[in-house]
Design a protein that fits this description.
Helices cover 37% and strands 13% of the residues. It has a 5-stranded parallel beta sheet, sandwiched between helices. The protein is globular and about 50 Å long. It has a single domain, classed as Hypothetical Protein Ychn, Chain: A (3-Layer(aba) Sandwich), CATH 3.40.1260.
């Protein structure tokens, strides 16, 4: 006798299989080996090896429990992707402006755990690695005030800005473009 529940699940399993196969194309490195996966692409317009990038990312959504903040992961993906394409790492200058719900992702473990039921800040190690590669992190001071975050609560080298709007305006004056993703 066939199990009717199993027969109902079979179509769902076939839908999930292509997504799994597609993710096999993604690998980390060459800069960040633990995060920032990318896939190879046959480009119609390859990135020039001497290309330079000055990009500001905007993070306002908090990380899912136990995961790196999605925007922080995207910055690592961007660096890995460009270096794999032949761009020199020193030609990539990124800033991440954090506000809203993502604000806690820039806090030290003690503060984070106190506000997140004892959980570990899964973004902290990635932030430290990105900073070692020149990525600058700015926290919106207005969001910090709303979350009772002080400078002492921040991860090392995170900069407190008057606001996210101010940080983005100043970064644009310094030649940074805004990443729309």
């Amino acid at each position: 006798m066939q199990n009717p529940r199993l027969l109902l699940l079979l179509p769902l399993l076939t839908l999930a299989q292509p997504a799994t196969a597609q993710m096999e194309n993604f690998t980390t490195g060459p800069v960040f080996e633990d995060f920032g996966p990318t896939a190879p692409v046959q480009q119609d317009e390859p990135v020039a090896a001497d290309a330079t990038f000055k990009i500001a990312f905007d993070a306002n959504k908090e990380a899912e429990p136990g995961k790196i903040n999605r925007t922080i992961e995207s910055a690592a993906r961007f660096i890995n992707m460009q270096v794999k394409a032949g761009v020199k790492a020193e030609n990539i200058e990124l800033a991440i402006v954090v506000h809203g719900g993502a604000s806690l992702d820039l806090t030290n473990q003690e503060f984070f755990a106190a506000h997140k039921d004892g959980r570990k800040n899964a973004s902290a190690a990635a932030i430290a690695q990105l900073q070692q590669h020149g990525v600058t992190f700015y926290l919106c001071g207005q969001s910090a005030a709303a979350h009772d975050i002080t400078n002492a609560d921040l991860l090392p080298s995170v900069k407190m800005s008057l606001s996210a709007m101010t940080a983005h305006a100043l970064l644009q004056q310094q030649g940074y473009s805004l990443n729309p993703f």
